[in-house]
Amino acid sequence: MTTPVYTRWAPPKAATKKKPLIAPSPPTSAPKPPTESPAKKPKKRKRESRVDEQVEIEAPSTPKKHKAILSKFEKSSKLVEAARASAKLEPEEDEEETAPAEVLHDLGPLPQPAPIPEPAFEPTFSTLPAWLANPVSVKSSKVIPFSELGVHSFFLKKLEKQGYKDALAVQSALLPMLHPGFEQHLGDMCVSAKTGSGKTLAYLLPIIEALKDRVVTTLSAIVVVPTRQLVDQALTVAEELCAGTKLKVGTAVGNIPFATEQKLLVKTRAHYDPKRAEELHERAMHQLESGIVERAGILHDLESVPADHVPQYDSGFDILICTPGRLVEHLESTTGFLLRSVRWLVIDEADQLLNQNFQGWATVLMDSLHGETPEDFMNAQEQLRKRRQNSSWSIALPERRNVTKIVLSATIRKDLTKLGSLKLKRPKLVVVEDETPEASMATDGDVFELPSTLDEFAIPVGDGSNKPLYLLYLLINRVFQNQITGAEQTSEGNEVFAGSDSDSSSDDSDEESGQPGALDGKSMSKNRSRILIFTKSNESASRLTHLLSILEPTLTPFTKTMTPSSTDKAAKRLLKSFTNGAFKILIASDAASRGLDIPDITHVINYDVPSGITSYVHRVGRTARANKAGEAWTLFTKTEAAWFWKQVATGGTVKRGTKKVARVELKKKSVTWNRRKTYQAALLELQGAVGAGD
Ligand SMILES: Nc1ncnc2c1ncn2[C@@H]1O[C@H](COP(=O)(O)OP(=O)(O)OP(=O)(O)O)[C@@H](O)[C@H]1O
Questions:
Q1: Locations of Acidic residues compositional bias (predicted)?
Q2: Hey, do 130-255+315-374+401-433 and 448-503+512-693 end up sharing a CATH topology, with the first three levels equal?
Q3: Which of 227, 230, 182, 177 is nearest to 203 (CA)?
Q4: Is there an atom of ligand 1 within 6 Å of 450 CB?
């Protein structure tokens, strides 16, 4: 029983003590007239208890003639009391004291039984909506010739030219669902496939195939990606596919002045319509007089068209590839940039985009996509529909066509709240999975899946003070000595190469053992390795490049730095020469890690450990792409060791099939051999710009 919160005030014991209803000794003489004035009496009474009140009221009413009766009553009462005393009866007063205290209840809540503890909720059903709980699973090894997927011969030839005969797993799954035909899915698509699985072609090919006969430029597809590099990558694929058609592909990334981009995006032309022109001029005059003028809009373009004409807007592109921030800017400020004709919306690298809600891009985009066209820009059909909105005529008017949304991500993210902002209709989830049972295990949280062709290694570098030397050692003795032919491993899973502690042939006492081999420029230029080294910042990338060139001058012509500050043209040139093999080592900050598609990167080296698991997955995902082999190396200090092994190497978040991250111990002596002095000199040369950790 719970105690009630409130209890009523109870009078003190003395006040509650029972008094006889009739005064025990009535007055012998006539009652005296009251000494107090009658006006004061009721006040005094109010303060007294109700029992006293009764006594005082009744006392004066006892008549004299009943005196005898009363005295008889008193006597008999005394007799009764005496009888009680003899019968050892407790006096009334004691009875009261021992009686259990009366619990008074007033308006307070009634005592309630203690609540029964609720059993822990263990759902026997999935809390996810059906489409997320039951995805369409596709094995990553599934490849189907493009010719069997109904791809038009025009595109088959293009693909063959690029050496693509078979569609990769994600393409085999997506193409039939996006192509008109029996297997077409009439709804939105969510695609979860690991990095480098060929997602770009999987969404661009069906869109471009559907638009290939288009003659009049109409904005039909928008592709949103998180970075400029990804825009360029998607643009390259789209341009290759569109070559030979009349389709126009454009970008909006902010690499050119906004006004220039606006002119490319929307073409303004004059349309003869005297009535409408007069209306618009009147509105413009009215606004000028009132002083409240529209910030941007159709009125601003009135001056640029001849008399009796009104401005009309046409899209400059059929397919627009853009970053979310720039897209929002255009939606808000570019007159005539309308999405009424958009039929495809692609959100690539959705996990990153939805995590960084640039200017509320998703909401702005959805409003423009699904909202009504502003009245000034309505075409004849839209005007008619608006006029007939509530009439029976509206049924006869063609419906606004649906937009097919394709949401892609390298991570399996079942985050309903974030996907909710994309307003998906009848969505279907396609998951490309690895063959191994562990890799294909369904998990509700974030699961990152690495390509099965990727080998991972990790090198402890002590306190990090000699990290550049460890890197150099790795480059000379592993990367440039061996071609990528697969790792030789000890029974413990540790990699063996010159200087490794696991190498039984190496001898601690021998200063020469495992010493770095010499590099020569000729063999370097022939080497097929392409190494992408990641640092924690742009500054770090520049410093490391400098340091490497001092430590090993042979590397200088083969090493370049890429930072987001590189201009677009410079970045493109850099990537092209890296792809062609003109240089071998590209040092980059994290900004370059996402979606950077450079074919045939053989090694990714995490010189600085990544900031998180997602970053690790995206960094190492730059190699082992499109079913090719690749290696990922991570240098970690003592303080980073626990995080790396617990979270990245052995944690359940990263799935790598039956493979493991191999720990490679390098002897400090071998690493610093003969280079200590050069290293000290190099650090001095950098004039303190290189910290101990660099
Ligand atoms: N059918 C194919 N056959 C062979 N290679 C292909 C095929 N399709 C695409 N590729 C190549 O695979 C690589 C990866 O493609 P893509 O960039 O589309 O992957 P992705 O899944 O978008 O990766 P990320 O998520 O890292 O951006 C590219 O170099 C591309 O040229």
A1: 504-513
A2: yes
A3: 177
A4: no
